[in-house]
Amino acid sequence: MRKYIIAEITGTFIIVFVGTGAIVLDEVTTGAVTHFGVCLIWGIAVASAIVYAGRIHESHFNPAVTLALVVAGKFSAKRSVEHIIAQIIGAILASVLLYLLFPKNPTLGATLPSLTIWATVGIEILISFLLMTTIAAIDIFKIKHKTLPAIIIGTVVLLMAYFAGPLTGASMNPARSIGPALISGHTEYLLLYLLAPIVGMMLAVPLYKFNRTPSN
């Protein structure tokens, strides 16, 4: 199996299992993890997966990011299909394992809105746009340090989850929503969480046209 496929599967597995696992644990322990604790765990999981995958191969762990990079001309359209399939496999495997550990949990950390559909769509587009803006800025400013991009992206995920988690579930990632939705059976809002992150990240694609000009 190709290295980048392994990296996408395992990295997405780590993010979804640890992140949704934190949500389930918070429910099981009646709030012992706390909302901030869940958000912090999400951020650390994302940062850890980026550092881990960076040692193997370029990975995204997020179909919306992959598609946005293809449109921006920063990633191969041919390879994107394999990456997206691997991301979805990793997310589903994570949710299967979480189900085996907590079979009585009704949602397994699925993204479910507490607002109207349109409000949820708007927030998901916004936070996905902000996440992709961060990823674009890292590329534009050519931040090549091994761990700094992971810390920056992980922190943005933490902040977006803290803001939007109670409102929309703060998906920003179709794979993150697909796994829990399919395994828990809560697919009623899945289309929303597939499309909104993609739209939000596509809106950030024009940022790649800007190049950093060195100061004199």
Q: Pairing-aware structural class of the strands and helices?
A: mainly alpha
Would you tell me which CATH topology applies?
Glycerol uptake facilitator protein
Q: CATH class, anyone?
A: Mainly Alpha
Low-confidence stretches: none
Architecture, according to CATH? Up-down Bundle
Q: What is the CATH homology-level superfamily?
A: Glycerol uptake facilitator protein
- Hey, roughly how much beta strand do the residues contain? under 5%
Return the string of H and E elements: HHHHHHHH
Helix content: 55-70%
Gross geometry: globular
Tell me about the biggest sheet? none
In DSSP terms, counting alpha (H) and pi (I) runs of 4 or more, how many helices?
8
Cα-based radius of gyration, to the nearest Å: 16 Å
Overall average pLDDT? 94
Number of strands: 0
Explained architecture:
By secondary structure, the protein is mostly helical. It has one domain (3-209): Up-down Bundle (Glycerol uptake facilitator protein). 69% of the residues lie in helices and 0% in strands. It has 8 helices and no strands. Helix 1 (3-28) packs across helix 7, helix 3 (63-71) packs antiparallel against helix 4 (77-101) and helix 4 (77-101) crosses helix 7. The longest helix has 26 residues, at 3-28. The radius of gyration is 16 Å and the shape is globular. The termini are far apart.
Set out the fold topology:
Layout: H1 3-28, H2 35-54, H3 63-71, H4 77-101, H5 117-140, H6 148-168, H7 174-184, H8 190-203
Helix pairs in contact: 1-2, 1-4, 1-7, 2-6, 3-4, 3-8, 4-7, 5-6, 5-8, 7-8
